[in-house]
Amino acid sequence: MKNQRMLWVLPSSRGWEHLIFSRRSGLLLDLRVQMNFWNRALHDFSSQLVPDVRVLLPQVKVSEESLDGFADCCRQWLETREGFAFEFTESAGDQSLIVSVGLRKDVICSNEKPVLTIAFKADYRIQTSLSFVIDQSCMQVFLDEAESRAVLPLD
Fold this sequence. Notes:
The protein is of the alpha+beta class. It has one domain: Secreted effector protein pipB2 fold (2-Layer Sandwich), CATH 3.30.2450. It contains 2 helices and 9 strands; from the N terminus they run ββββαββββαβ. The strands form 2 sheets. The protein has a 5-stranded antiparallel β-sheet with strand order 4-3-2-1-9. It starts with a strand and ends with a strand.
């Protein structure tokens, strides 16, 4: 796949947020979380959505097997609606990446619209967690791309 990049996208139920897995090379993955919101400067909630949060983790070490394992958990969720937490075990020794799907008390959600949470840690200094609500159509979009092994030309 020279000059191509694997790309899997898991959108939120409202379409404002996206979790993007993009293979760089070998085991290295770009992990992006993009969130949009109304233009805060305008104080106008009828305005166009603009970029609000952009997180890029450019060196997350993840194997193809872990991506397949995560996709298996997503397929299982489509069948059962049972929450899960998937830890990408190939993360480098000082990295931890866990993606979970399930109910949370601090977010309006349900079994049909659970919360996707991305938790990343790089040694003891850097930790982040981002969440958004998904539904079965979001999960199906992600699985369709995963099953097709979607690739795009490198930027």
